[in-house]
Amino acid sequence: MSLTSPALVNECCKVCDSALRPFGSGRVLGRHEVRYYRCETCGFVQTEHPFWLDEAYETALIAADVG
């Protein structure tokens, strides 16, 4: 999907339930390319479905993090 494509299909803003448009992309956990979307109404920025969360929580960030 190009970053200039029209609003997403089947996705709405998590804040106001309005349409989203592609906003940019970034790398998560140093290896997952993730798309970001901006709400046309309220300006909230969110990612695509966070498929990387299980991997992100596999290990503690610091030794004091016990869960």
Query: Are there runs of 5+ residues with pLDDT below 50, and where?
Result: 1-5
| Biggest beta sheet attributes | 3 strands, antiparallel
- Relative strand content: 25-35%
Q: How far is the N terminus from the C terminus?
A: 37 Å
> DSSP helix count?
1
Strand sequence of the main sheet, in spatial order? 1-2-3
Alpha carbon gyration radius: 15 Å
Q: In terms of structural class, how would the helical and strand content be classed?
A: mainly beta
The coarse silhouette is: elongated
How would you describe this structure to a colleague?
The protein is mainly beta and about 70 residues long. The chain is about 5% helix and about 30% strand. It has 1 helix and 3 strands; from the N terminus they run βββα. The protein has one helix at about 55, and strands at about 20-30, 30-40, 45. It has a 3-stranded antiparallel beta sheet, with no helix packed on it. The longest helix has 4 residues, at about 55. The protein is elongated, with a radius of gyration of 15 Å. The protein starts with 19 loop residues before the first strand and ends in an 11-residue tail after the last helix. Residues about 1-5 have low confidence and may be disordered.
Please describe the structure with a list of short key phrases separated by commas or semicolons.
67 residues; disordered N terminus; mainly beta; elongated; 3 strands; 30% strand; 1 helix
